[in-house]
Amino acid sequence: MMYRGIFAFAVLALGVANAFNAPPSYTHVTKRSISYSSLLMTTETGEKPDYAQKKEYVPKWKKKATLAEVTGTRELSAQDKGLIGSVPITFQQGIGESATLIQTTGMPGQSLKLVASQAGQYIKYSCGKGECGTCEALCNGKYLRPCVDVVPTDLSPDPTTNEYAPLVIQVKGTKAKVVSSGKFFSVKSFILGFWNNLLGMAGFVRDRRKARKNWEERMSKEDEIKRLTEEKKRKKAEEAAADAANNV
């Protein structure tokens, strides 16, 4: 039964794959519809016409504006956002012109992990105890670990302005590459889906065999319990009959 199901699914998959291929007549008509002038223009300029230029797929969510862009809160300062703190802190990720800066404020003794979280700065953590060094960052020439370290409490404000010097924390960049979802259908996704369904059918057969074995064991135990119960009832009936005969 399992092999029949696999064979039927393979035939269905082959039919779906052939359906996505363009028929020869359609391709032939498309070639005829191309004008001679467009071919000549392509040869002279070396540029592909509009119909031959494949536009890159852009997901719909990338075209929409973020909440910060809609409300205009991206350019607000830390005080305008409602963040409380007297020590200016700048999180720097990257080097040079490609570096991203996030400015916020913190209070002396406040956890740097909390400060980074409320500022929207991503930091990769691992143990959370300050032992592995995954989150290690450089702050004004000193290395610290934001998972356990806090905003320094021994900072002294400027006597003239009565403000603290800003802390620049250089965090590690992420190496994860953002992969776009791309098109909904691809040959790779179709093959992976077929393989996933094949594994699912094999798993169903395996689990069914295990379930059948468990069912047979349970039924044998229930039959044994039924036999012992009937035997116990029979012994009680025999004892009651013997007592009644003795009383007579």
Automatic annotation (TrEMBL):
UniProt domain 2Fe-2S ferredoxin-type: residue ranges: 104-162
InterPro entries for this protein: 2Fe-2S_ferredoxin-like_sf (IPR036010), 2Fe-2S_ferredoxin-type (IPR001041), 2Fe2S_fd_BS (IPR006058), Beta-grasp_dom_sf (IPR012675)
Domain of life: Eukaryota
Chain positions covered by the region annotation Disordered: 227-248
GO terms of molecular function: 2 iron, 2 sulfur cluster binding
Secretion signal, residue range per the UniProt entry: 1-19
Keyword Iron: yes
Record keywords, A-Z: 2Fe-2S, Iron, Iron-sulfur, Metal-binding, Signal
Ranges of compositional bias, category Basic and acidic residues: 227-239
Family annotation (Pfam families): Fer2
Name by which UniProt lists this protein: 2Fe-2S ferredoxin-type domain-containing protein
Organism per entry: Thalassiosira pseudonana
Taxonomic lineage from the root: Eukaryota, Sar, Stramenopiles, Ochrophyta, Bacillariophyta
